[in-house]
Amino acid sequence: MLFLGFSAGLPILLIFSSLSLWLREAGVDRSAVTFFSWAALGYSFKFVWAPLVDKIPLPFLSRYLGRRRGWLLLAQLAIILSIVAMALVDPANHANLTWMALAAVSLGFCSATQDIVIDAYRIEAVDSRLQGMMSASYIAGYRVGMIVAGAGALFLASGFGSTMEVYSYQAWQWSYLIMAAVMLVGMMTTLMVSEPQVNEEAAYPYPTRDYLELLLLFAVSVSVFALVFFLSAQPVTALKQAMGTDGPLATFVLESLRLMVAVAAAYATARMGLTIGVSNRQMVSMSYIEPIRDFFRQHGVKTSLLLLALIGSYRISDIVLGVISNVFYQDMAFSKDEIAWAVKTFGVIMAVLGGFLGGLLSMRYGVIRILLIGAILSALTNLLFIALASAGHDLGLLYLVISADNLSAGLASAAFVAFLSSLTNVSFTAMQYALFSSLMTLLPKFLGGYSGTFVSNMGYSNFFILTTLLGLPVLLLIVLARRCLQLEEQ
Question: What pTM did the predictor assign?
């Protein structure tokens, strides 16, 4: 689990913070850089294809490696190819940005798929007594993977000679190619470990034809989503010009409507496919509908909606700021080496310490109470960035801000993971946990894509105040959720 955690933690920063630094050095506009964070939205939608990964056997791989290891090897191979594809694109030529975006989206999709399989493998591999140790090992490996992809990639790019003043595509290309090679750690682990012992007949209860039909329906629905989303780009741009506004609020509202229209079109396509019998309706119901129905049945409609609102907004304050944080450090004249040591190494260590602290405090004082404290600290520490924006290049203040921000984030994350686990029914672990973890990052990452636009319009200080204010409604949701859950227990 340590090595699989490493394999899971490596890709996320290659499409999040390390990529943002590469794009900025290549001369890409700040607003465009933060839009690239949407490539990580695959993590927020992984619940959509989690049932496919769980239910559909792979030709050859599933037969010789097993259900989990077959999907794991396929996902890891696709991750390596996606990282290589990113390395082969020079973003300094802005005509290539579309290809870079496609490669980054592919990496996000494949990495999220790997996460789905690793979660299922961890649950099936050992009994409940060892789940705590499995999770701890996984998280430790995940953090090490983040250090390698964050600090390691920056050290490599800097060592190969790329700076803000003198950009070198070859430096970043070699850095990403080395990251692709490091992913072999995950592939070797997959080939060496044993497959969890499960009842294969229970794992695949439907005929092969039903699985192929479900895969076809999924592919058609996703294609409709992509087609509607991309074709609506030009009409939305024309509408903004006709309205005479290009501000961040108007842009956010119009782009949100664009996304919802695309989602509605994909949903209508799936419903139509079920109506005309493209896929087995009972299979779709058991894979998608029953886990959600179980959650609402367990908590009731009112409490369920409240809990889902809390899950979807709890990390909004730190994720929205995190999308543009590396660009902010660069604008404050910090070098890649300084960012690598302070943010990618020291910051990750502080987040791990915060996680241990959050776990201990949750055991001592209860999850909900630490959840509330974590939300308060995560919002308030964003105000420290205002001091850093005023001070500029102050290395001591940077370490102070990173310490406070990552400690509070680690504490909040540990309590939040424990909270999500408590809401999950063991009968639907894979789908429900994928749904919760997807919802957790969907809205924050969507808003984070506009962080560059917000900063360009209001400046860094006002933006940091905005991220703090975004965390205030979360406090009310926690208080209401605590009251509802206490009533449930009574």
Answer: 0.72
